[in-house]
Specification:
Elements lengths: L1 H10 L1 H19 L17 E2 L1 H7 L4 E7 L1 E3 L1 E3 L13 E6 L10 E6 L7 E5 H6 L7 E6 L2 E13 L4 E2 L3 E6 H7 L5 E2 L1 E6 L5 H8 L12 H47 L2 H9 L4 H40 L5 E2 L6 H27 L22 H21 L5 H34 L1 H6 L1 H13 L1 H39 L4 E5 L6 E2 L1 H6 L5 E14 L2 E8 L11 E3 L11 E5 H6 L7 E5 L5 E10 L11 E4 H7 L4 E9 L5 H10 L6 E4 L1 H44 L1 H9 L4 H37 L11 H18 L1 H8 L3 H6 L2
Parallel strand pairs: 5-11, 7-9, 18-23, 20-22
Antiparallel strand pairs: 1-12, 2-13, 3-5, 4-8, 6-9, 7-11, 8-9, 10-14, 15-24, 15-25, 16-24, 17-18, 17-21, 17-24, 19-22, 20-23, 21-22
Helix pairs in contact: 1-9, 2-7, 2-9, 2-10, 2-20, 7-10, 7-15, 7-20, 9-10, 11-12, 12-14, 12-15, 12-22, 14-22, 15-20, 15-22, 20-23, 20-24, 22-23, 22-24
Length: 825
């Protein structure tokens, strides 16, 4: 029986290939991974400590060597004078001291020499290669006091990495770095080597008493472990994110595999009956079908494993195209990846084939002599409608529980949402066959009306086997449901943010970082005040702090904030003008969470371990789309006195005459010396933020598109196998006068109708998920907004999907030999 199964696989090459292809695409999402680490805090400040600590450490008898260094951020400028975009990768600045820290320096010089002196710099190889810089060239750096030019003396890499993504590295000698970042007489870190025979723990105990409160000492093992934990934490988030999409792809693939196997087994009723007639038992038939599934699953999983490398490169190219570049290293093809990929692919294939295989065992031997015999109905089939409705209800209940239940731990909530969504998809798929006939009747009407006989037959074919049509459409439904959900959620985010900008933003202009998000030097705002006609400049600064036991963000404002930002106060009025040295204001939700009222004390611990004792002087009600303020906002004077190198999140500007081309030119001229800052109107500011939302949406669309790709092959599979099944029927149609063109048109209409059924179900399910989610997040400012144009694009796209998926099956159907088709069994 095993030999019969294997020989049968070889004899049905095309059908075997179609089944395998779905598995290949599913498995490729497990082996193809892209991961990166990006732990930049938008306002993070790591406090430096006195350089005298290095002197004390070097004097310890057990210290063999020690070197201090500076770590900060510096934006490099391209030849056009604009900031080199890092795509979120960071603008790293570091110091080197070749004479003292050679053993500690992770940077590797690949050409030139290390910088020595205030006018010299070394840069990373990736930037040098992509921006055409070489040793001896000059490059600009966006410094706090304006643009500075440096001579490039060296090109370096980070350890052995050819690239750390799109991040840039600016390397200075220690004195230059200390001056550039306002850390003269200070270091950000010290690396220490012990003498032979001295344990790390002993050296740590000697160093600890020498350190200020803001510094701590760790052994290299502890530092390495912490770094690995940080990397694993960051990679874990990304890997879970990508594995989630891999799970979606496999889930869709399981539908395609099960549907394909169900069709092929239904077409082999007489074959299985013949096996039963010549003595094959039900167990042997089951084993034969499962062996076929195992062989196909194993081969396809192996192909998918290597195909996954291509998927990884494709995803990386997608991210690079939208402005996000990941670090590059050697390709790692781990044993664990191979085992997991093969196991998952084979197991999913076996599970998907189990139900069709059990059906195959129920074929009676008498079916071998019957014309057109079909698979028998199971005893439990009468419970199908009830089970499908219960499954659908269970999925909805789990979703409602996960979204609206109060006090749930995050893990439990995510678990309920994940399983609820999967069960919802299964429930919709099980019930979809009841909607196929009415949907096919409506969606197939244009084809029947304008496509003549071919269009009418296509509609009737889609309605003839609703279970098969529903199974094929369900794979498309899953992908499109998730894409619709993301589109509606993104539209809600854009709408809520736009509403917040419209309500808050009363200034004429805003100065922001070049990328619209990073903090920038406060000197840029000071430069704007010198522009002719400026009547008000109101910066909003940001930083980190620890308040009520939590690490959080704080902000700072000038007394004239009311001239540029409209704030709805629930307690207090014109609060920014009354903050003084110890005042603060918070949002009403933050006040409620921490039981604050006017006059309540708020202890704010800064990164330098200073404690600011503030009093609450105002509570405001932010719009649903959020506000530019941190959890606690103080006066700019207090912030500047306790935060080193304070930076602005944005600077709001009023100017006589409002927004005009002339005023825009004046403000841009004032910012000429600060290339890391740009001037924006309210509409431009809104667009910048929306572009970031769109960037995220594009990434999600790209990943979800892989599940749609698998669904497309599901439609191809179904149509091709349908052509096999209907070979005699197609031969008869050709014999009575149907032309090849009409046959092609009929198959194309079938593909379009099937795709549109899946699209309709997907859009309905996606809207349902979006309505639930936006309702749950309404207190976070997310509103329900249906992007009608995007929905129209989806509908058009799903029509094109059906058309493309039907091209090859239609061509095959039209080329059938009429005489052979009439004799086909």
């Amino acid at each position: 029986m095993n030999a019969v199964s294997l020989k049968g696989l070889w004899g049905r090459k095309l059908r075997t290939l179609l089944t395998a292809l779905a598995i290949v695409l599913g498995v490729s999402m497990i082996s193809g991974k892209v991961a990166f680490k990006n732990d930049n805090s938008n306002t993070a400040e790591v406090p430096a400590f006195p350089a005298s600590v290095l002197t004390k450490v070097r004097q310890l008898p057990d210290v063999a060597a020690a070197a201090g260094g500076i770590e900060d951020q510096a934006k490099l400028l391209g030849r056009d004078g604009k900031v080199i975009s890092t795509g979120g990768g960071g603008s790293i600045a570091a110091s080197v001291d070749p004479q003292n820290d050679g053993r500690f320096n992770p940077l590797k010089l690949v050409s030139g020499r290390w910088p020595v002196g205030s006018g010299q710099i070394a840069i990373d190889k990736h930037t040098a290669d992509t921006k055409q810089f070489a040793v001896g060239d000059t490059i600009g750096v966006a410094a706090d006091q304006g643009t500075r030019r440096f001579e490039i003396t060296g090109i370096a890499t980070y350890a052995e990495s050819s690239s750390i993504g799109s991040a840039t590295i600016a390397i200075f000698d220690v004195p230059t770095a200390q001056k550039l970042f306002a850390k003269v007489g200070k270091f950000d870190g010290i690396q220490i080597a012990a003498k032979n025979g001295v344990t790390p723990e002993k050296l740590v105990s000697e160093i600890r008493p020498l350190l200020p409160a803001t510094a701590k000492v760790k052994t290299s093992a502890a530092q390495t472990a912490e770094a690995i934990d940080d990397v694993n934490g960051s990679l874990g988030i990304v890997q879970k994110f990508l594995l989630g999409f891999a799970g979606i792809a496999l889930f869709v693939g399981a539908f395609v595999i099960a549907n394909t196997l169900s069709i092929t087994i239904a077409q082999r009723v007489r074959e299985f009956a013949t096996l039963r007639t010549i003595g094959g038992s039900r167990r042997q038939v089951l084993r034969a079908v499962m062996l076929e599934a195992f062989v196909v699953g194993a081969i396809a999983s192996l192909v998918g494993l290597f195909f996954g490398l291509g998927i990884a490169k494709g995803l990386n190219a997608l991210f690079v195209a939208i402005g996000v570049e990941f670090p590059k290293g050697d390709t790692v093809f781990a044993t664990r990846t191979i085992i997991v990929s093969l196991t998952v692919g084979i197991v999913v294939t076996l599970l998907a084939s189990l139900r069709p295989a059990i059906k195959a065992t129920r074929v009676p031997p008498i079916a071998a002599v019957r014309e057109g015999a079909a698979l028998p109905v199971t005893r439990l089939s009468r419970f199908g409608p009830i089970a499908s409705l219960v499954t659908l209800a269970l999925g909805i209940l789990l979703l409602v529980y996960g979204i609206f239940a109060g006090g749930l731990p995050t893990a439990s909530r995510l678990l309920a949402l994940g399983f609820g969504t999967l069960i919802l998809f299964v429930g919709v798929s099980l019930n979809a066959k009841r909607a196929v006939r009415p949907l096919a009747s409506v969606l197939g009407w244009p084809g029947a009306r304008f496509g003549g006989t071919a269009g009418t037959l296509a509609r009737e074919n889609a309605m003839r086997n609703p279970s098969r049509t529903a199974a094929t459409a369900s794979a498309l439904m899953i992908g499109l449901a998730l894409i619709t959900f993301v589109a509606i959620l993104g539209a809600g985010l854009r709408a809520s943010f736009g509403d917040a900008v419209d309500k808050l933003f009363v200034a004429d202009y805003a100065v922001t970082a070049e990328n619209g998000f990073d903090p920038f030097t406060k000197q840029a705002g000071a430069a704007v005040t010198l522009a002719p006609g400026v009547t008000a400049v109101s910066p909003i600064r940001g930083g980190d702090a620890r308040i009520f036991g939590d690490n959080t963000q704080v902000s700072a404002v000038q007394p004239n904030l009311a001239k540029t930002v409209r704030i709805e106060w629930t307690q207090g009025s014109n609060v920014p003008a009354q903050l003084g040295k110890d005042g603060a204001f918070v949002s009403k939700d933050y006040a409620k969470k921490h039981h604050l009222k006017l006059g309540s004390p708020i202890a704010v611990t800064t990164p330098t371990a200073q404690v600011l004792h503030l009093q609450l002087k105002g509570v405001f009600d932010p719009p649903k789309g959020g506000s530019p303020f941190g959890d606690v906002t103080m006066s700019a004077a207090t912030f500047d006195a306790h935060y080193s190198a304070p930076r602005d999140l944005m600077t709001l500007v009023n100017i006589r005459g409002g927004v005009t081309d002339a005023n825009t030119a004046r403000l841009e001229k004032a910012l000429n010396a600060f290339p890391d800052a740009k001037i924006q109107t309210a509409s431009q500011f809104k667009k910048t933020q929306e572009d970031d939302i769109n960037l995220t949406l594009n990434v999600l669309y790209g990943l979800l598109g892989l599940s749609v790709l698998i669904s497309i092959f599901g439609v191809v599979n179904t149509l091709v196998l349908s052509v096999f099944e209907r070979t005699r029927e197609l031969g008869m149609l050709r014999a009575v006068g149907m032309t090849r063109r009409q046959v092609r048109r009929m198959i194309r209409f079938e593909g379009i109708i099937t795709s549109m059924i899946g699209g309709t179900l997907g859009i309905v399910v996606g809207v349902f998920l979006a309505v639930l989610t936006t309702q749950a997040l309404s207190d976070q400012g997310i509103v329900l907004a249906i992007p009608w144009r995007t929905m129209a694009v989806f509908i058009f796209g799903i029509t094109v999907v059906g058309l493309l998926a039907s091209v090859l099956p239609a061509r095959r159907a039209s080329r059938l030999n009429i005489l052979k088709a009439l004799q086909y069994e």
